[in-house]
Amino acid sequence: MTVFSRIQLPAATAARPAPLQMGEGSIAVTTRSLTFGGQPWVPVMGEYHFSRDRPERWERELRKVRAGGIDVVSTYLLWILHEPEPGALRWDGHLNLREFVQAADRAGLKVIIRIGPWAHGETRNGGFPDWLQALPIKHRTNDPQYLDLVRAWYTGIAEQVQGLFHSAQHPAGPIVGIQVDNELYDEPGHLATLRELAESAGMKAALWTATGWGGAQLPENRLLPVYAGYSDAFWEESTTGWPSFGPMHFTFSTVRDDLSVGADLRDVPLEGTGVSAEHDPWPFATCELGGGMQVAYHRRPLVEPHDVAALALTKIGSGSSWQGYYLYHGCTQLPGTQESHATSYPNDLPVRDYDFAAPIGLAGTLRPHYHLLRRQHLFLEAFGRELAPLPSVLPIGEDPVRWAVRGEGEAGYLFVNNHQPALAPLEDVGGVRFEVAAGERVVGIPVNPVRVPAGAYFAWPLRQRFGDIPALTVTAQPITQIVADGRTVVLFAATPGIDVELQLEGVAVELVSGAELEPRGAELIARPHGEPGLGCEVTVGATTLVFLDEAGANTVWKGEIDGRESLVLWDGTAWFDGGLHIEVPQTDQPIAVFPPLAEREQKLSPGTVFTSYVVTGEATLHAVPAPQFHEIRSAPVRTGGSMNRFSAPTDADFAALPAVPVEVPVQALTGEGPALLRLTWVGDVIRLYAGDRLVADQFWSGRPLEVDLSVHRDEIARAGLWARAFAWAPESGVYVDARVRPAGSEPVLSVQEASLQRIRTRILR
């Protein structure tokens, strides 16, 4: 049997106010966590750029964001879009910040605005207007001429969001925080001035933040540092395999700072390790955990769903008390505003595509990691009040499996990550049994050693209270809980490859049903009857624990249906808005709900908790002939930019290619809702045009191209939909993941499959 080092939980201590000068309101920062209304709070934040999407989509997409367990939406303000000409600020249409914030509020989201002035976001000039970039002033400093321009920019923002800030006088205000600038490393005095300018303009936020990565110097006690963590990066070289920074984000650690983020835009890259928890008298907060990864022409990472979810869970186990994702919802660039070699950046990015392989794609599709992350977010929403103040405790020395405990006193949560990306996978670890000294007791879990499979990552409760159970330790991860109809229901996700085992304390044998019982000293060991699934229930008094398998755990949703908090098991796209809005499936599909829906025909359901129903399907998928590229050309090989990396083909290069028709059924584009075109293809770069207008592009990285054509229906009906594309060159030095990189000696350009789906929705009540 493998003997792991024992983790000793520290004695319970009280949190103190953090030495930070934040704003007023019911939100505060302690040395352990944020608090909201005096209670510990773990914000879960997702980035969604309002100016890079269509305003008619905002509210629906924000409700998808909220349904994913996000409770704060963050968004950049890109100055280059709002003031293309000096003195003429624009807030109309897709630039209407106030309407976006109000839509977020209606969706149940708080808001963080990232006001710049410099934003980056893979934008030309970092988001500075061209006229500002060209001025002979010292940008991003306290140069008085620069500050005068910033003052006017901030004043314009303040006018748009007047009355929308959370405060003691306005506790329901949706805007809870502001980030000033971005990735500014050596101007702490300027960052302090930016906060002063914003407050002088009328922006009175409860939270003030700045990016802390890269060893950033922040003004003392004026801004809360927020950090980043990505599993891969487009800003690395095309010759790089898995970046050297990768392992740190899949290893439990007290180190908060990744010095590599933004390093390609610094004159002098830093070396060594970043700041750790021991140096920060405030909680670990993140704003840019990779929700996926953007691609550049020279380097196109393939970040997989479990990479995203395992990294996120590792950060929670490492002490994160603020989970923030970049991007959470993919976006579309405005042509010509992207970072590129032509604008002196090291990277050439797509003209339009800023999908980022995010949990929600730019066309509104929900990716597998949306569902994987939702499990974690529901956990933080239900149990974050207990988790937030708990310190992260690491084992001493090297153990064969990566683990940590967040806990103190007599209880906590055990975190394990045995996943890394496919470029550097971890192996199974056998003989695993964790021992945690919690107060007077030593918790050993599981009772007998088990094998932790490669790719597994999970959080198990240690002596936690659930309903009628005073102390539960279990080899399954809590998802969420609900109290309804006189019972407490707690949902768990069973850990694949490890049997569910409960250690109950303070529970009489006669109160337990649904499990094989084994008294063992002061504990009662329980093993559920049957395999994890909808009917795998263990009941203790008025508390029912439901243990779902991996697939079932990914279908759990929680929200209000007709004013009643409800649990839903639904394998598809959904959001809450009075009722449960679902995207209609192609065929009949089951859905399970607790408490039951009103006035709907019920079906028998396994177990005693959920009631099952059938959602009638509707054929909305239209076959589209795959476009045929008869002329196969590779793109010209060029290098450029500040680091002499491979350059993308230009507009002139594409103009020299023949246009290939994409024959979509125009009648399917009419009516309400998105019309999603999906092309599964292989090549180098593809562009789609409605007539002569560029509507979408993609650098191939192994992912399909998804485009909502509904907004382009008139142009397509009049002038058609066309594609131009370059073939993948077998000798290309461009980085594409070896799992999908084309083999062979001939150029490759083909569309294997094409479809058009009309997205229709239905409300269940």
From TrEMBL:
It comes from the Bacteria. InterPro entries: GH (IPR017853), Gly_Hdrlase_35_cat (IPR031330), Glycoside_Hdrlase_35 (IPR001944). Pfam families: Glyco_hydro_35. Residues 34-377 form the Glycoside hydrolase 35 catalytic domain. SUPFAM superfamilies: (Trans)glycosidases (SSF51445). GO terms for molecular function: hydrolase activity, hydrolyzing O-glycosyl compounds. GO terms for biological process: carbohydrate metabolic process. PANTHER family: BETA-GALACTOSIDASE RELATED. Belongs to the glycosyl hydrolase 35 family. This is Beta-galactosidase.
